[in-house]
Write a structure and sequence with these properties.
This protein has about 575 residues and is an alpha+beta fold. It is about 30% helix and about 35% strand. The strands form eight sheets. Strands 21, 23, 24, 25, 26, 28 and 29 form a seven-stranded mixed sheet that branches. Strands 10, 11, 12, 14, 15 and 16 form a six-stranded antiparallel sheet that branches. A four-stranded antiparallel sheet has the order 1-3-5-4. Strand 18 and strand 19 form a beta hairpin. Helix 4 packs antiparallel against helix 8 and helix 6 runs antiparallel to helix 7.
Amino acid sequence: MPFPIFRSSDLLIFFLGIVFIFLVTAAESREINVAAVINPRYIQLGEKARLDLTISGDTFIKHIEAPKFNFLPDFLAVPLHSETTPRLKADKIAVSMAWAYELIPQAVGDFRLSDVQFAYQGSTYFANPGSVRVGRADTYQDPSTGSIHRVEAEVDTGEPYLNAPFTYTFRYLYTAVLPTRESPTPRLPEFRGFFVEKLQNVPTYTQQIRGRTFWVEEYTHKLYPMMKPGEIVLAPAELLLPLPRGHKTLKTEPLTLTVQPIPETGRPPHFNGAIGEYQISAEIERGWVEVGNALTLTVRISGRGNIQTVTVPELPKIAGVMVSEPPNSTEYTSATSRVYTYVLTPARTGALRIPAIKYAYFDPSRAVYVTTETLPIPVSVRPNPNDLAGVDDSDPPPWRLWLILFGILVLGLLVAGFLWYRVGFQRSTEASVNATTGTGTPDSEEQKRRKPQRTDAEPVTPASQAHQALTALHQRGTEDTATAFANTLAQVLYEYLENTFGLAQRNIDAAREMCVAAGVAASVCDELVELLTKCDYHRFAPVPLHAEERQTLIGRTETVISDITVGNHQPSAISS
C-alpha cells in the first residue's frame, strides 16, 4: 500500500515542476520588448526613410541575434549602425540592442511592410513597422491639408538646330497655397553651353487636371545651343517647398535633346553662320561728298534669332573708293539688332553708286537659307574746293607761280580777242544781209547768249532717288524672290518717308502718323498703308509673286510717291 501512495506523490511533484518551468519561461518572455519604427512615413522617390529596430527587457539579455526582414523589391535596406545599451536592473545588468537602417524606395506607391523577426534564446519575436507611402519625385501631397504640389519641365522641340532658339518651360502646379510665410523657390538648371534669353513670366492661371483645379506658375526661357551637334541632357529643375516640418525638394525629369547641325544643302557661299530671321538696311548721312573727304555708311541687321551669330556683312568692292572695315564690336548693339559703320573715301569725282549689300541667314522655322539685300545708294562726288588739280602739295617757287599766272593772262587775252573779233564779224555780216533783204533773224546770237541756261544737274530729291530705285527694281524683273522683292519695295517707301518727313521708325503705324501730321491726303495715306501691308505679307509669307503683280505694285508705289511729293510742294533735296 505505501508504494502506490509514494508513486502518486512523485507524479504530483513532477507535474508541479513542469508547471513551474513553464511559468518561469512565460514570465521571462513577457519581459522582452521589440519595436520597429519608420520615419517619415511619406517620402518621395529619390528620398530616404529611416528604420529603427530595438529589443529590450527587464532581465539580462544575452545571445542577441540581428533582426531579420526583407522589404525587396520595394525598398533597399542599407545598415547604418547598431548600438548596445547596458543598464542595471534588480541588481543585474540588462542590455538593450538597437539597429538603424536606411530605406531607399525603388518604386512609387503605398507599401505595407512585412514583419521584422527577432530571435532570443530560442524564442522568436515579431514587430511590424507599418506602411509607407512613396510619391513621385516631382509630386508632393501635404498630409495635413491634402493639397497636391507638382512640378514639370518641357521644351517645344527635342531636336533643335545648332545656334537656333527653342523654348524651355518650367511649371509649378498646386491645388492650395502652403500654410507658410516663405514662398516656394524654383531652381532651374544652369544651362551650360546655351545662350539664354529669359522671357517675361506668364501670369498665374488655372488648369483642370483629372477633375481638380490647379494653379499654374510658368517660368520660360529661350535657349540657343552653342556647343557642337549631338546629344545633350538638361539637368532636372527643382522646387524648394517650405514646409512647417522642414523643406522638401521636388524635381522634374531630365530632358534629353539632340542638337542638329545646320544643313549643307542650299548653303549660299556668302553665309557666315547667322541663325534666325533677319532684314538688312543701309543708309548714308547725306547724298553727296567732296572728293577726298569721308562719308559714313551705316548698315543695320535686325530681326529675330540668336543675335550672337550675326557677323559683319561683307561690303562689295566699289571702284575708286577706299573703305575702312568696321571693328568687331559694333557701334550699337541690342537684343534684336546690330549696327555696323563703314567709312567711305572717294578718290575721284563723278556719280558714285554703292551697290546692294547681301546678307544670308538660316531660318530654322522653315529649315531654309534666305538671302536679303539692301537697295543700291547713289552718291554725288563733287570736286574739293580746297584742292588745285595738277598742283603739288608743296609750296612752289615764286617765279614758277608768276609764270603760271602770266600764261593764264595771255591765254585769257587771246580767247577774249578771238571772241570779240567773231562777234564783230557776225554783226557786220548780219547788218549787210538785213540791209540787202530787209529781214532780220528772230533771235540774234547776242539774244541767244542772254537766254537762261540750264544747270549742270538737277538736285537729287527723295522722289527722284525713289523713282531711280524703282526703275532698278523694275529692270530686275522676277530675278528676286517674292520676299526679297517685297523687302526692297518696303525699303524704297521707308527711305523716301525718312528723307521727306524725317520718319523715325520703320513700321506702318509710324508711317501713317507721319503722313497724317504732314497733311497728306487721306486717300494717299490709305494707299501707302495698303502697299506697306502688302510688302509685309510677301516678306513673311512664302507666297509667289508673278511679274504682272510686281509691275502693278511698282506702279502703285510710283503713284503714291508722286502724290505725296506734289502735295508736299517742297520736297527735301538729298544733294544740292
